[in-house]
Amino acid sequence: MASYKPVVVPSFPKLGEKITKDTLYWKHYKAPIQIKEFGAVNKIDFSPIPPYNYAVTASSRIHIYGRYSQEPIKTFSRFKDVAYCATYRDDGKLLAAGSEEGIVRLFDISGRAALRQFDGHTKAVHVVDFLSDKYRIVSGADDYTAKVWDISSSSEIISYNEHTDYVRCACTSKLNADLFVTGSYDHTVKVFDTRREKSVMTIEHGQPIESVNLFPSGGLLVTAGGRYVKVWDMLKGGQLLVSLRNHHKTVTCLCLSSSGQRLLSGSLDRHVKVYSTTSYKVVHSFNYEASILSLALAPEDETLVVGMTNGILNVKHRKHEGEKALLNKRKRPVYRTFLKGRNYMPKRDDFFVSKPVKTYLKKYDKLLRGFEVSKALDAVLHAHGKNNFPEVAVAVIQDLNRRGTLKNALAGRDEEQLRVLLSFLISHVTDERFAPVLVNVAEMIIDIYMPVVGQSPVIDKQFLKLQELVEKEIEHQVELLEVLGMMDSLFATMTRKKPTPLDEDKTEGS
What we know:
Organism: Anolis carolinensis
Radius of gyration: 32 Å
Protein name: U3 small nucleolar RNA-associated protein 15 homolog
Number of domains: 2
Number of helices: 10
Domain U3 small nucleolar RNA-associated protein 15 C-terminal: 343-490
Strand content: 25-35%
Shape: elongated
Mean pLDDT: 88
WD repeats: 118-159, 160-202, 244-285
Helix content: 25-40%
Low-confidence stretches: none
Subcellular location: Nucleus, Nucleolus
CATH class of the largest domain: Mainly Beta
Distance between the termini: 89 Å
CATH architecture of the largest domain: 7 Propeller
């Protein structure tokens, strides 16, 4: 009796992401460290001076972490309610924060008690920042106002009451000590000059604004609100340059890389997108396990810290070239050991001892050898759910079809088994690599289970989803054919007409 031949899994081209310099750069981080905070992390801010500690604002505490510490090295907890937006001054010596009480507090990094307390807002202060002269503070609150405070006297310098909804974000200019920008839930961004009593510019974003950021040059302003990230030219009176819609939920935070050539945005859809500031295209994306509220990058992009709604602080450190070289150095002797004797040529007097090679069969191969076709298909589908290798499942389906037992394997399934099979089809039926095989499977399933449609709401819902998916794919194919026809027409008109002998004679006669 001939021995059983295992199922041959064909190699399909991988539809992975295109490897670019940005991909290599942003993937060059170690495995993330996760730190549990007391509540949702609403702000992360890096100190501008070495050793680049960072302040994390969550619940009623502000924790100061070292670059590589997993426990806070300092805590400010003099808040009766939720604290917001702890921000460093440019010299890294002072820290300002707002609170749910409507009070702005100023802390010395070397101390614990508040140095100054600024009272004047009647509702929660969600945003605080230092003007670049280092002696004034800007704050925005839910009482629709933005105020400028003098640090030395703890007094209010000026108050702006132009917004008609909560002021939830602000940023200050690094070049002009009198200029700052506020964003509000009234869909507007306002640019203020502390030397004037009213705003000098108003920009309509179109959605409630969650974050604003000025480029270091001060010429470009980035706003985030709703699903949109928009870039405005300040030197042209707030003209819209580009509108980006790469998230499918609200964008909550913005951040620039240390070089200013990359813009990062975090969203409630659990993604961080990295944009090029020259083409404004997404060059990389990070995925997280919860909705993102805040993010920050250390100088030279050495550390990426993300705060989430579930109170988890995700910290990624960049790998250093020295560590990578040391790791490769450790692997070399082991690698040489495995290759030792590989190219040895036997001599005339050598005896060759052959060792029988034991064949290890996969679970689905063992079941196929025993003609248990339905169980073999179940085994490969459950393995796909764990490891996500659709090539193996498709190879088993092709082998069952070759044997003529595919219909038997698909029939006689209970609700759970059919649900798993339909989930696999929904995930991969539109994949061009597997479509020829899986479309045939979908037709068989419809023929087999059509008499029992309507008995299970779960299965009915999956059938409808499969139908919508196929109809959508057909629409895309029709649109592509139309575009192809348009392109053929354009190319036909662009081809140069070759001169005929008659045309040449007319040219010579004239």
